Amino acid sequence: MVVERPDTYQILGNIYRGKVTSILPGLQAAFVEIGLDRTAFLHASDIEPSVLLNEDDELLERYSRNDPSKRRAVVRIPIEKLLEKGQGVLVQVIKEPIGTKGAKLTTQISIAGRFLVLVPDADFIGVSKRTKDLKKRTRLKRLIAQIKPPGVGFIVRTMGLKVSETEFIREIHLLLDQWRTASDEALKGTGPKLIHREMGITTRVIRDLFSEEVDEVYVDDEDDYKEIQSYLAALSPDLLDRVILYKGNEPLFDKFDIEKDLERLLRRKVWLRTGGYILIDRTEALVAIDVNTGRNVGKHALEQTIYETNMEAVGEICRQLRLRDIGGLIVIDFIDMQTAQHRKALETSMYKALAADPTTTSATTLSKFGLLEITRKRVRPELQEFYTDVCHACNGLGWVFSPETVTTRMDRDLRRMTSRRGEVRFAVHPAVAAYLMQDSARIKHLLETEHKCTLVIVPDEELDQDEYRFLDEGLDPGAGKK
């Protein structure tokens, strides 16, 4: 799922003229100012030396730009020999700022089109790994070699595997015009600045996802509709009639129940059709997914029930990874299976499902404990981070202190008081007040007897459940506040 708001435009793919602010030899990385709130991060492995060094530099003699096998040696060149503080550098964002981390950059510039990706600083031709047909790969490479200008490279995208020479020519001209405009902009003025903005979300979705397999695209904004029509008219005019301008009175999200789907995507528990469910939990280091049989009691033997639940979970897990845009390390705890054939079938099914994911993924085999590890490329904050904030009541813990625990904390605060008064007034959450007053205020009376005072309990809905306040000046020792 792709989400964007007017105040949070995506910068992934943007090209900037940046300025190196610091170099960290110990990390083999540099921080680059590109005009954002935070400096961006550039690692040595993402630097193309030929863009930065002169042709007579001795470092360039160590590798050949046109030999991919030798290009890997680039990462061994110390970053302090590639960059210097204050140096200007042309960079592209390859990873959005996430959390407290700034954007990640590369000097290996590319501009993506619908069918092709332009790589302006490398004279080579590549073909999407989605096709294993060697004859098709060879044919496409020969075709692009005949129509592209020298000195630049192109990669044929998955969407371009079935298009004609005319469509390739149109896009080559379009991409080259964009690069010329960006190059000219980079030469103007001084200091960090944006020189090429990636397409907006509307055109970007059409470019990357709209294909012959899509029957209809609904758009509820006339300006967006015109933008899509203009883009498709230049590259894929045969798809124009599949784009529909929605003019209904009912909001588009309501008509197709999108709002309900969004709410479900933020839930921890996802139910499976057979009655089983998966639990999705994020930690600092990884995302943990647990598979359970739930209400699925099965019709046959236990092993068969477990196998069917696990197999159904595979498809739903991969779907959730795409919809929530979950990236990083993912650990899946499948229900233990005894049969080796079932374990092998589960692995095969998972690998096949992951292969259909447009985002780069990698998976291990199933461990003896039923765990399977996946890495999925993370280039932007996932859906949960985009739609939600950390809970101010629990600070991301997912739990708050129970009324019993809050009462115990109140008891300790009363013990800390050096002066006693006949009446002590507490403001507490209504749930805590209900606990203190239950069973004819038994807990309240116990506290009063213990501390030789009279407690006045004032329910306050403004407080979180694990917060409370002393309402008398000079009595609050501060322990009741989070």
Task: Map the helices and strands.
Layout: E1 15-24, E2 29-33, E3 40-43, H1 49-52, H2 68-71, E4 88-95, E5 104-106, E6 111-112, E7 116-119, E8 125-127, H3 134-147, E9 153-156, H4 165-186, E10 193-196, H5 201-209, E11 217-219, H6 222-235, E12 243-245, H7 252-255, H8 258-265, E13 269-271, E14 277-282, E15 287-292, H9 302-324, E16 328-333, H10 340-355, E17 361-363, E18 371-376, H11 383-387, H12 403-416, E19 423-428, H13 430-451, E20 454-459, E21 468-470
Parallel strand pairs: 3-5, 8-9, 11-12, 15-16, 19-20
Antiparallel strand pairs: 1-2, 1-4, 1-10, 2-3, 4-5, 6-7, 7-9, 13-14, 14-15, 16-18, 17-18, 19-21
Cα-atom Rg, whole angstroms? 30 Å
Sum up the overall morphology in one term: globular
> How many helical elements?
13
- Rounded to the nearest angstrom, the distance between the terminal CA atoms is 37 Å
Strand order of the largest sheet: 13-14-15-16-18-17
Structural class: alpha+beta
Task: Give the uncertain stretches in residue-range form.
Answer: 54-75, 478-482
Helix content: 25-40%
3D structure, described in words:
With 482 residues, this protein is α+β, with helices and mostly antiparallel strands. It has 13 helices and 21 strands. It has helices at residues 49-52, 68-71, 134-147, 165-186, 201-209, 222-235, 252-255, 258-265, 302-324, 340-355, 383-387, 403-416, 430-451, and strands spanning 15-24, 29-33, 40-43, 88-95, 104-106, 111-112, 116-119, 125-127, 153-156, 193-196, 217-219, 243-245, 269-271, 277-282, 287-292, 328-333, 361-363, 371-376, 423-428, 454-459, 468-470. The strands form 5 sheets. It has a 6-stranded mixed β-sheet, with helices on one face. A 5-stranded mixed beta barrel has the order 1-2-3-5-4. A 4-stranded mixed β-sheet has the order 6-7-9-8, with helices on one face. The longest helix is centred in the middle third of the chain and has 23 residues, at 302-324. The protein is globular. The protein starts with 14 loop residues before the first strand and ends in a 12-residue tail after the last strand. 24% of the residues are buried.
